Amino acid sequence: MPAETADDSSRYRPDPTVLTALTSPRLLTREVLAGLVVGLALIPEAIAFSIIAGVDPKVGLFSAFIMATSIAFLGGRPAMISAATGAVALVIAPVAREHGMDMFIATVMLAGVFQILLAVAGVAKLIRFIPRSVMVGFVNALSILVFAAQVPHVIGVPWMVYPLLAIAIVVLVFMPKLTKIVPAPLVTIVIITGIVVVFAVDVPTVSDQGELPRSLPELFLPHVPLTWQTFTTIAPYSLAMALVGLMESLMTAKLVDEITDTHSNKTRESWGQGAANMISGLFGGMGGCAMIGQTMINVRASGARTRISTFMAGAFLLIFVVVLGDIVGMIPMVALAAIMMMVCVDTFDWHSIRPSTLKMLPKSETFVMVATVAVVVATGNLAIGVVLGVFVASVLFVRRVAHFVTVERTVAEAVARYVVRGELFFASSNDLTTQFRYTHDPDQVVIDMTESHVWDASTVAALDAIVTKYEALGTSVEITGMNACTEALHTRLSGGLG
After folding, report:
1. What is the DSSP letter of 207?
2. What share of the chain in percent tops pLDDT 90?
3. What is the pLDDT of residue 1?
4. Nearest C-alpha neighbor of 277 from the set 85, 465, 424, 445
5. How many CA atoms lie within 13 A of 148 on its CB side?
6. Rg of the Cα trace of the chain?
7. SS3 130
8. Please, what sign has the CA dihedral across residues 25, 29, 30, 35?
9. pTM for the predicted model, two decimal places
10. 127 CB burial (10 A radius; 0-12, 13-18, 19+)
11. In the chain, at which end, N or C, are there fewer CB atoms within 10 A of the end residue's CB?
12. Residue 476: partners with Cβ closer than 8 Å, 6 or more residues away
């Protein structure tokens, strides 16, 4: 592996750095207040995801604390928030239900091991193969899912929820226009909670979501037999959790890269997620991955840019649930729901569905985006939607590129000359053999490859088949104009493919 150059290291240097933020009262205040808001927003989400996974609410809350504080040091994307997530909860829920808590925690820890191994294998580099249309679909689908998750908090509730929701949205929209010193989400929480407490308004609160823990997380070593049967039982769930967690984390990191115009170390983020999940499991947490909703609150709504905000989100979460549980329990759910809804509205790529954009983009790009959104929303599984989106995009790309190959024939002085143009691979070269007029050509044929490139064995086999057909008719064939890469591949494989 080549040594990291100065340019490589500077590429991942955060801006601003933690040291810069610590020495700047303005930046430090921004980071701490952002962590405060995110810490509050994590509480109902962690409780809800615990319920999905079929475990006690404290399992999700402790996991959110441990994941956030761990990834602040281990992760490769500053200011990104990791905690217990719905995607991970859905994947591993059957383990708690069918095999108990010890197997559940063992599954989380094994998923962390898998993520570290995948990081070592270089899986983070695969993020570059995800097309923009899939990325847009991923963002839009997540915005829809997170928004939909807030709807139960504003449907079938006391009528006072609706004026409070309206007030919250007004504050979230207009507060940033007045000042950005204090995050608008924090002001919203304070105002809505103040109204509810002062006027004794009866609306659902955080305490209604589940009991908050009263003690610190303790070391938890799962009591499971270290046998092959145990491994085969939990490994499929662990691998699924590892893949879903990495996919959501890496794509969220890529989104934050674009928002902040900075780079992140995807490989470090991959093994950091694995290490954080292992630590989470050691303290009885359910594990998790990056959270796009809370990350957008941190980065977009609150303006955070460093690891300080991530660490403070976890630290504040622990303080809130263990020390200030009674006060936090008074926060109306409508305040947190309004924040998440506005984040979803801001995160959704509205430009992607404008009529002018849809008219301008190739239909294949739009189809890939819509397919990604539809599958993610229908299944609630990000991995399935993204994988399907990449597959559809790849098929459409291959289909389009396959038509770019042309074969032009000229005959002069008893020599048939074929000029092949385009990129030749399995999709474009399968029909190559049909482009030649074998029985109508003279005794000498020249195939000019100057304007083409051979990429795979399928094309070499097609060229061999063409030569064989001509030789069977007694025709002499000469292949000319190969570039160095094409000639090397052709020399190595020609005649040996059967």
Report:
1. G
2. 51
3. 37
4. 85
5. 11
6. 28
7. coil
8. positive
9. 0.74
10. middle
11. N
12. 443, 444, 445, 470
